[in-house]
Design brief:
It is built from eleven helices and eight strands. By secondary structure, the chain is an alpha/beta fold. The longest helix has 17 residues, at 62-78. The radius of gyration is 19 Å and the shape is elongated.
Length: 253
């Protein structure tokens, strides 16, 4: 990869920006070794995500669904944030107004130091009761006994992961925050997302229509790459640290 795979324009626009919004997808997590949602492994190879990630499946077989998400939690906890995650946490400190929007549920951005992350699809590390709505303590679902249904300590209702399932709407507050940040951004970065799942895939277009400089960082061009001002092809864990270094050097001049 070239030392500077991005344009000087992107660096300068970041230097001048007062508001920056970033959208991240599965690609940045994949660089930490997090399997994509549809990757299969071991016990779960015989299931399709659609069979487990929905309310009906959960109500019919809570042990199975809770077990699958417990497995996914363990996988996420075993992985560490990569340089791309840390670079975005650093970028937050360099911009007056910064919003990180993610489609990922693995909590890696927060572990890298990013704050106020807008979680479009929730967070797999949280669980809440479907009856009383209370969030459960992490240790309540950390290591469930085999074949045991994990229930709410307050009302004995079923605990489900705080993630968006098939057939469910995105959290209204998160979507509103994401759309607002895109509309107000001076620079919008789309990172590691294929841009085929809406409404998240529409956020770069919202930003562009509002006058932002929109750039994509991806190992392969996304479905909406032709609409971008700039497409940077490469791993975010390699590109972002170089971009932040260039930004810091430009700010020092």
């Amino acid at each position: 990869m070239p030392a500077r795979p991005f344009s000087d324009t992107l660096v300068q626009r970041l230097v001048e920006a007062r508001r920056v919004a970033v959208l991240t997808g599965a690609g940045i997590s994949a660089e930490s070794g997090i399997p994509t949602f549809r990757d299969t492994d071991g016990l779960w190879q015989r299931f399709r995500p659609e069979e487990l990630a929905n309310v009906d499946a959960f109500l019919q077989n809570p042990v199975l669904v809770q077990g699958w998400y417990h497995h996914r939690q363990k996988v996420a906890l075993e992985k560490a944030p990569n340089p791309g995650h840390y670079a975005l946490a650093k970028l937050e400190s360099l911009v007056p107004h910064f919003t990180l929007i993610t489609q990922n549920v693995d909590n890696l951005h927060q572990r890298a130091g990013s704050t106020g992350v807008v979680e479009l699809h929730g967070n797999i590390m949280r669980s809440y009761c479907i009856d009383c709505g209370r969030f459960a303590a992490e240790d309540a679902v950390a290591d469930p006994a085999p074949d045991a249904i994990v229930r709410c300590a307050a009302c004995n209702g079923l605990l489900r992961p705080d993630v968006v399932w098939f057939g469910e709407m995105l959290p209204a507050e998160a979507l509103e925050a994401a759309t607002g940040a895109a509309a107000e951004a001076d620079v919008f970065l789309s990172i590691g997302t294929s841009a085929v799942v809406y409404p998240a895939a529409g956020l770069p277009q919202v930003a562009q229509q509002a006058g932002a400089y929109v750039a994509e960082i991806n190992i392969a061009p996304s479905a909406i790459a032709p609409l971008m001002h700039e497409v940077v092809q490469g791993k975010s864990g390699e590109v972002l640290p170089i971009l932040i270094d260039a930004l810091l050097k430009r700010k020092e001049k």
